[in-house]
Task: structure prediction
Amino acid sequence: MTVVPAPADPEIAAAVFADHVARVSASPQARERGWAFTWLDAMHLVVTVTGTRPDGQRDGYHLKLGAEYYDRYPPTTAFVCPPRPATANAPGRDGWTEAPAGSRWLPNVPELPWFAIHSGYGNFADGVARQLVCCSMTFEYYITGHGPTAGQQWRQGRHTLAATLNRVQDALNSPNYQGPAGADDP
Result:
């Protein structure tokens, strides 16, 4: 599918999303993996996740999940930069922004057959290049011309945002994880 489907009913999506977040955040798996959940509004949250390099060094990231199409489709998914506090000389951002290419907040995970992160993927239906967390457990995968196999496909009622978090965490704990894509902090 390259056409964006109609959004989910916001009240239903928010309720299902909140229920699934509550279940995941209370799970032993969330504690073991160190996931921290920060609600932005009823339809969006940021999950702090950690990547572990082959040498054992650990790096923290922020993954924004959205319920705009949930749970018929996976959550919208993007690595984001944390907001900075405003100062007199440098006004702060008012929220979380998508991590750009070369950012310290974008993981570098090359050469996995089941997962990729593209900082400026250009095959979105609206023609705007933006980040794609490329796996079948993210909404953006389905609107950028990707076709999962039957075994990879998101299944409403079977999969939850836990599947998205697990897929991302598995990539960040794989031997291919190389650390942040860059050193800058936009």
Observations:
- DSSP finds four helices and seven strands in the chain.
- The chain has a mean pLDDT of 92.
